[in-house]
Design brief:
This protein is of the alpha+beta class. It has helices at about 20, 30-40, 70-80, 125, 130-135, 140-145, 150-160, 170-180, 190-205; strands at about 1-5, 15-20, 55, 85-90, 95-100, 105-110, 115-120, 135-140, 210. The strands form 4 sheets. A 3-stranded antiparallel sheet has the order 3-7-6, covered by helices on one side. Strands 1-9 form a two-stranded antiparallel sheet. The chain has a two-stranded antiparallel ribbon with strand order 2-8. Strand 4 and strand 5 (about 95-100) form a beta hairpin.
Length: about 220
C-alpha cells in the first residue's frame, strides 16, 4: 500500500519521463541521478528535440560535492558519460535488451558554477512529446532525490507512477533487474534488509510517501 502524508515538500521541479525509464535499468549514484533529474526538469512540453542542459553546483552541494569542486565534477561527469540505459524488449517472441548511453556530452569550466550535459538522442522518445504518447510520470525532484539510498530514490519513482492505484505488484527478480542487483543480495533476507526495508525507512524519513509491502510466495520459489 502507498500513502502520502500532509507534510509540505517543494514540488515545483518535476522530472517528467516515460515509465520505460522509471522501470528500466540504470546505475546512477545519488549525485549523478540528481544531475540527471535536474537536467530533464528543464525540458519543456513544446520542445521538439533535446538540447544541452545546465545544472548548477549550488543545487548539488548536499549530494557529496567536495571543496575541490573541479576535480570532483571532472570525476562525476566522467561517470555520467559511462551510464547506460537498458530496457527489456521482445522481438519475434524472443526477449532481449535494448541499450544506449544516457549522456552523450558533458562540460565543466572551473569557476563558472555549473556543468552542462546533453542527453543521448535515443532518449528523445522517452522524454519528449509524452502527453501525446501517454505512459509517463512527472516525479517531484525534491522527494525523489531526498532519499539516502539510490534504491529508495528508484523505488519512490516507481511507486509514484502507480500512486493512483495505491499498490504495485512486481516480482523480486524483476525488481532486482531494474535496480541492477542481479548478482547482489541473492539471499532474500539480505535483499529485504538492504533494499526493501532500507527504502521503506528512507521514504518515511525523507519524503511524503509511506509504503508497506507484502511477500507473495509462489509454489516454485520467488
Amino acid at each position: 500500500a502507498v500513502k502520502f502524508d500532509p507534510r509540505n515538500y517543494p514540488d515545483d521541479k518535476l522530472a517528467v519521463q516515460s515509465n520505460d525509464v522509471l522501470f528500466g535499468q540504470q546505475s546512477f549514484t545519488n549525485l549523478q541521478r540528481r544531475i540527471y533529474l535536474l537536467a530533464i526538469s528543464q525540458i519543456k512540453r513544446s520542445d521538439s528535440q533535446l538540447r544541452p542542459y545546465r545544472v548548477y553546483i549550488e543545487d548539488l552541494k548536499e549530494y557529496g560535492v567536495s571543496d575541490n569542486i573541479y576535480s570532483h565534477m571532472d570525476r562525476v561527469t566522467d561517470g555520467l558519460m559511462r551510464k547506460v540505459f537498458k530496457r527489456r524488449i521482445k522481438e519475434n517472441g524472443n526477449r532481449g535488451w535494448e541499450k544506449w548511453p544516457m549522456i552523450s556530452w558533458a562540460k565543466y569550466i572551473e569557476g563558472q558554477g555549473y556543468i552542462e550535459i546533453e542527453l543521448h538522442r535515443e532518449m528523445e522518445e522517452l522524454l519528449l512529446n509524452l502527453k501525446e504518447k501517454g505512459n509517463f510520470t512527472p516525479v517531484p525532484i525534491a522527494n525523489a532525490t531526498a532519499c539516502g539510498s539510490i534504491y529508495g530514490s528508484r523505488i519512490y519513482a516507481m511507486l509514484y507512477s502507480w500512486r493512483q492505484y495505491n499498490k504495485m505488484e512486481i516480482s523480486v527478480s524483476e525488481l532486482r533487474t531494474i535496480l541492477k542487483l542481479e548478482d547482489q543480495y541473492k539471499n532474500f533476507a539480505h535483499f529485504r534488509k538492504r533494499v526493501l526495508e532500507k527504502a521503506q525507512k528512507d521514504l518515511q524519513k525523507h519524503t511524503n510517501m509511506r509504503f508497506t509491502w507484502e511477500e507473495l510466495k509462489k509454489a516454485r520459489g520467488r
